[in-house]
Amino acid sequence: MKRKLSFFLIVFFIFSNINSQTNQFLGINTIVIDPGHGGKDPGTLGTGRYSLTEKDIALDISLKLGSYINKDYPNINVIYTRDDDSFVKLSKRAEIANTYQADLFISIHCDAFTSESVYGTTTYVMGAHKTKSNLEVAMRENSSILLEDNFDIEYSGFDPNKPESYIALTLYQSENINYGLNFASKVQKEFKQAKRKDRGIKQAGFLVLSRATMPSVLIETGFLTNKEEEDYLNTENGRIEIASGIFKAVKMYKNELEAVVEQRMDELIKIDKNNNVNVFFSVQFFSSEKEVDFKNKKLDNSLVLHFLENNVHKYCYGKAKSYNSAKNYQNKLKEIGFSDSFIVAFVNGNKTEVKKAIEMIKKD
Ligand SMILES: [Zn+2]
């Protein structure tokens, strides 16, 4: 099964339970919140006028954000990569998100710059940096690994201070980036509404994002090297405002994904109004005791169906009007390595014996 799972390295898609009457949405179940730095790594120190450093502010905003999510969405599983002042390796942070199969990864930080006049909020998504200053932010955030034991082995010789290290890292491409950009735009929109300066959505090679296999963002909530912004982030109200802004973005992102899924499922399982019975054939290609969210580049992911049968999660591909045309989907699956798939049938959204389904079509 491990081998099969490797097909889904680029992981993210939304499934809904095709048999379920409630059409339960499975898109945003788990959110991992990652307060930057911690323990021996204080992060940005700011102007030195306050005792709180980046690690403390990031932790407080993270805990606030998590509590807002828990309050409005008790069913969402909120996981923190740290919920106290401890040092957590960057690789471990992404590993936590991957282990919990998070649907969204939010890393929270504070910015710094050599010039004290620079201020504002930025949300970063993994990608190639377009400017030197974006690269510099990634370099600063990635340099946490220098405090880790065996970082050279863990990150295969990646040197956070060398621009050339970033070339391979930013070649990384994933569908998740688009989802990340979507969420990032919502975060920045909320910050703007809260009258924070919007420095935009940017891309750069962040190690912590590069290893996470779901839509991920790194939020720079303001510059601690700017006095006004440092004052703001050192107030309870400032941190509440920032956490609320991120929370509103989560809410909008979740609603948007849900709407898309519902529409898609409606199309897939709707009963044809002219025809009382809706019969279609699909190809079952994968089953697992644990639910797996995945997206495969070589498949039309809007045609991947998920349903639960005897407590086993089953995945089908395609929606064909006849048994014979379902074979085309089966061939496609074979091409990409699913050699033992088989055709199944659905009648009005319920899995039915293939023979019966074929007979029903004949009667029509
Ligand atoms: Zn940071």
How would you sum up this structure, described in words?
By secondary structure, this protein is an alpha/beta fold. The chain folds into 2 domains: 25-259, Zn-dependent exopeptidases (Aminopeptidase), CATH 3.40.630; 270-363, no CATH class. 38% of the residues lie in helices and 20% in strands. The protein is built from 12 helices and 11 strands. The strands form 2 sheets. A 6-stranded mixed β-sheet has the order 2-1-3-6-4-5, sandwiched between helices. It has a 5-stranded antiparallel β-sheet with strand order 8-9-7-10-11, with helices on one face. Strand 10 (342-347) and strand 11 form a beta hairpin. Helix 7 crosses helix 10. The protein binds zinc ion. Zinc ion (ZN) binds at residues 36-37, 43, 54, 109, 141.
Q: What would the keywords be for this entry?
A:
binds zinc ion, about 375 residues, 12 helices, elongated, five-stranded antiparallel β-sheet, Aminopeptidase
- Described by the principal axes of the CA atoms, the overall outline is elongated
Total domain modules: 2
Trace the largest sheet across and list its strands: 2-1-3-6-4-5
Please indicate the percent range of residues in DSSP E strands (runs of 2 or more). Answer: 15-25%
Spatial separation of the terminal alpha carbons: 40 Å
CATH homologous superfamily of the largest domain, by name?
Zn-dependent exopeptidases
Associated small molecules: zinc ion
Q: How many helical stretches? A: 12
The CATH topology of the largest domain is given as: Aminopeptidase
**What's the main sheet like?**
6 strands, mixed
Structural class: alpha/beta
By DSSP, the count of extended strands is: 11
* The CATH top-level class label of the largest domain: Alpha Beta
| Rg (CA only) | 23 Å
Q: Mean pLDDT across all residues, rounded?
A: 85
Reported CATH architecture of the largest domain: 3-Layer(aba) Sandwich
**N to C succession of SSEs:** HEHEHEEHHHHEHEHHEEEHEEH
- Low-confidence regions: 1-26
